[in-house]
Queue: 2 jobs
Job 1
Amino acid sequence: MADCLFCKIVAGEIPSRKVYEDESILAFHDINPQAPVHILVIPKEHIADGAAGIDETNAAAVGKCFTVIARLAKELDLKDGFRVVTNNGFASCQSVPHLHFHLLGGKVMSGQMV
Ligand code: AMP
Ligand code: ZN
């Protein structure tokens, strides 16, 4: 989709530090990491409105994001635990309107989620 930052990353128009890629999923380092490990896992297809945009037409790609998250958690040795976050809309401070999952780990996190 035009003017979507993550679609531009998928298209290679904006560089990223990729850690995983296949035909439907891309994972790359967040440019402003909030934990020692902070990876963004995205479906390549533009799913607008975050989690609110998930439906039966894109659920397979969303499920695949979680298999990639599980794989990366092993590869990155997050055996002590990790957190997966998806922001959805204004109140959550979502800044990029293309569904993505934050994989956060490498430290003991706050017990507060918000
Ligand atoms: P959210 O606020 O949940 O929409 O998350 C968007 C994330 O994208 C933020 O954590 C940003 O740091 C990250 N981000 C923004 N621009 C880039 C970029 N060019 N490469 C990698 N991550 C980015
Ligand atoms: Zn997009």
Job 2
Amino acid sequence: MTRRAVIEGAGHYLPDRIVPNSEFEKTLDTTDEWIRTRSGIERRRFAAEGQTTSDLALRAARAALEQAGLVPEDIDGVIVATSTPDLTFPSVATMVQKDLGMTHGFGFDVQAVCAGFIYALTTANALILTGQANRLLVIGAETFSRIMDWTDRSTCVLFGDGAGALILGAQDGEGSNADRGILSSDLNSDGRYRDMLYVDGGVSSTGTAGKLRMQGNPLFRQAVEKLTSTAETALAKIGLSGPDVDWIVPHQANIRIIQGTAKKMGLPMDRVIVTVQDHGNTSAASIPLAMSVGVAEGRIKPGDLVLSEAIGGGLAWGAVVMRW
Ligand code: ACO
């Protein structure tokens, strides 16, 4: 018998306000056509004034609990992947824990920017496999609209707000790749790439939240190479390769990065869940959002082999392989 962290439910929440590319044409030297062809993004959601990351996270958590047929009493802990917390502290996770009415268990945040959900899933898997917890709520939630420089056309058209959540529960498997649950993961970071993607403010430097800065083109080239390599490493750890995968659920930053990575792995685009056109880049929320959409649309089904990969500020990148 091998203990596994199995996906028991998925849910998501998107703020009401839909912002089409054409909105940016009014204030910036940009076009719907440029944004669509260079990034694949057609629209994104922005949180309402006063709506915080924990508000989005809570709604995604409730949706995942409902989908799993579970209640907060069934959950041992909450992990939130985010780079845009409501406050410097306490964590978003403890806010969600309180709002769910949980006075038991634990909560903490994970910060690995767009790779945050991969890091959070890997952490949750380790906590479950070592018996620290039997059931965890793992959330990716962001309000990147709060750290945009609205005069910088090369970044502000790319990001959106949202949240997605998974529930992972302990189950016994046979120790083979046929088991449901997380089967493998691969984590990487390299701080030498810091200037490629960062926020120019923070608690111990400027005392402000800062704005996102990105060298898009060099990052693009790093992304395709590093995403393919981490995905192949995560699969190779369990003796699998690209063609074994039923669904890639990638980080949704740019359709051309998603297409390039799928092509390098030998997988057709009809086996990739793509939501970037509707959500933009929601950083750590993008993977659980896309997973929840894939489940709700009846595409991802129990038993499917799902590969997720992401790269973001740090640079930090990684991949997780799971059988749904
Ligand atoms: N509208 C019109 N023109 C624009 C815009 C815009 N919104 N933004 C940039 N341009 C211009 C540039 O100024 C440049 O003009 P120039 O040639 O006169 O200098 C031209 O378009 C081409 O710019 P590039 O940056 O070379 O365009 P590229 O094809 O690389 O696409 C993009 C840009 C979409 C940003 C792409 O590089 C990308 O997606 N990069 C990776 C993003 C990513 O993966 N981020 C990681 C995760 S994010 C996270 O962790 C928070």
